[in-house]
Design brief:
Shape: elongated
Strand order of the largest sheet: 3-4-5
Low-confidence stretches: none
Number of domains: 3
Number of helices: 7
Strand content: 15-25%
Structural class: alpha+beta
Oligomer: single chain
Order of helices and strands: HEEHHHHEEHEH
Radius of gyration: 27 Å
Number of strands: 5
Length: about 190
């Protein structure tokens, strides 16, 4: 039953046991009204709304915006590695919503960029591919100065290079001097 949730709602199943706890019967009751509805729906995706808009295309567009907003909250937890925090103040709630909005905006921009570049419309898949790009910082000590920090980016594999090329992005091919922002702010 748990593996077939759509069929599960159409039936009531009861295991009957005797006084010793042994199974002696299986009772299955079919819900005729739910079965009729399932047959009428015939696999259709049905939405119910309190919106008064009569144009189905406008309703669908509004629904898709809601789906994307929910996707931003899920993305915040998974792709961005952030978890919800127990917000104590209105300011923290507003900040959380703002971060979610920024995540959605960036995700949507990447999706549109991908479509324009002929790479489909799955930013999650692209970001998964780009996780293969590796970089590291090499810190070189310098006498009488702060150490020099050089960022190196590994040469990407061919399939990643093709994706980057389609998007018009170039991976740096030589070390970049990276200033330590935290130290600069401390002065």
């Amino acid at each position: 039953m748990g593996r077939n949730p759509k069929a599960e709602v159409l039936f009531d199943v009861e295991l009957v046991r005797d006084a010793q706890g042994q199974l002696i019967d299986l009772k299955i009751e079919r819900h005729k009204n739910r079965t009729e509805w399932a047959e009428q729906a015939n696999g259709c995706y049905i939405l119910r709304t309190n919106l008064t808009e009569e144009n189905p295309a406008a309703l669908w567009k509004a629904y898709m915006h809601l789906v994307q907003a929910e996707k931003a909250f899920r993305m915040e937890k998974s792709d961005l590695g952030m978890r919800p925090v127990f917000h104590q103040t209105e300011k923290r709630v507003q900040s959380h919503i703002f971060v979610c909005f920024l995540a959605l905006a960036m995700y949507k921009c990447l999706e549109l960029w991908m479509v324009k570049s002929g790479l489909g419309a799955s930013p999650a898949k692209l970001l998964e591919e780009f996780r293969e790009i590796r970089s590291m910082d090499v810190i070189l000590p310098v006498k009488d100065r702060h150490p020099v920090r050089l960022r190196l980016v590994a040469k990407p594999d061919d399939h990643i290079r093709v994706l980057l090329q389609k998007l018009g992005l170039k991976v740096p091919n030589r070390p970049k001097n990276v200033e330590n922002v935290v130290e600069n702010l401390a002065h």
